[in-house]
Write a sequence for this structure.
């Protein structure tokens, strides 16, 4: 009978956040795959766990995934842990999970801490709709990819969550300001730890703050999305760059009747249909 993969969430700072279920699983499985065994051994020693460990990280995630799948096919149960938080979230564990599904290996997730959700709930920004970007591509190694992602986020209406390392924080804030403009942002660090900090601010204010204060610790940035009202206003302004005649032609060329085209043009421009009718009439009289 094949083994199973257990995705075990571990604390992101405060060790008291370890769940009983994860503790029992880490003690009972045959093998623990850890992102950094040197880091994870401290966690295991703290909880008196002596299960065998093997490394599974960004640089061996494909080859090691096949090794672990072979072990599970032989009946071995494997627990996957990351350095902190939930495996497979901005983490090489996503590769192992995908390969397990291809191989027919059962995967189960043991919920627990995740920095992105913790930061979102603390941010004071809307939580009903959000998107997670993880770490942005490197500004030096993948400048094109970084720019493309930021451009994609420009019109994002959901609250956005980004991870950032301290030595990249200033550059990230500069790029966010350049692409998104000034938005509300909550900058979170040391989550669940003694000196946990949540700084609700704006991107411009954050740039000024970190000119005087050196970033320390791992950061989670929670950024306000573009409001639907702002999106509607930008769309209205873009339509107004077109003449009313060309705007009408745009719809009539699609086979839409003159009357219905006037309704659409009026809606696009945020005015009444009568105003469009009068503008067209004035144009005809002028001709």
């Amino acid at each position: 009978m094949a083994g199973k993969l257990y995705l075990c969430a571990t604390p992101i700072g405060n060790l008291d956040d370890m769940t009983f279920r994860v503790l029992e699983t880490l003690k009972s499985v045959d093998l623990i795959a850890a992102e950094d065994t040197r880091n994870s051994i401290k966690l295991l020693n703290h909880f008196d766990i002596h299960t065998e460990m093997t490394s599974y990280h960004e640089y061996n995630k494909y080859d090691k995934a096949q090794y672990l799948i072979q072990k599970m096919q032989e009946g071995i149960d494997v627990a996957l842990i990351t350095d902190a938080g939930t495996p497979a979230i901005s983490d090489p564990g996503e590769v192992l999970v995908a390969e397990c599904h291809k191989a027919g290996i059962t995967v189960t997730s043991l919920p627990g801490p995740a920095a992105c959700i913790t930061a979102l709930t603390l941010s004071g920004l809307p939580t009903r709709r959000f998107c997670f970007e993880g770490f942005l591509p490197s500004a030096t190694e993948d400048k094109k990819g970084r720019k493309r992602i930021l451009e994609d986020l420009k019109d994002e209406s959901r609250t956005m969550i980004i991870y950032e390392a301290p030595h990249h924080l200033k550059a990230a804030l500069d790029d966010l300001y350049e692409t998104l403009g000034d938005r509300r942002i909550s900058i979170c660090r040391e989550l669940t730890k003694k000196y946990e900090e949540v700084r609700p601010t704006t991107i411009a204010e954050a740039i000024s703050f970190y000119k005087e204060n050196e970033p320390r610790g791992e950061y989670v940035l929670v950024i306000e999305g573009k409001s639907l009202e702002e999106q509607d206003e930008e769309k209205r302004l873009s339509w107004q760059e077109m003449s009313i005649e060309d705007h009408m032609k745009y719809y009539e060329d699609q086979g839409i009747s003159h009357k219905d085209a006037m309704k659409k043009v009026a809606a696009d421009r945020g005015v009444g249909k009568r105003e469009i009718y009068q503008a067209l009439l004035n144009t005809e009289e002028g001709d």
Q: What stands out?
A: The chain has twelve helices and ten strands.
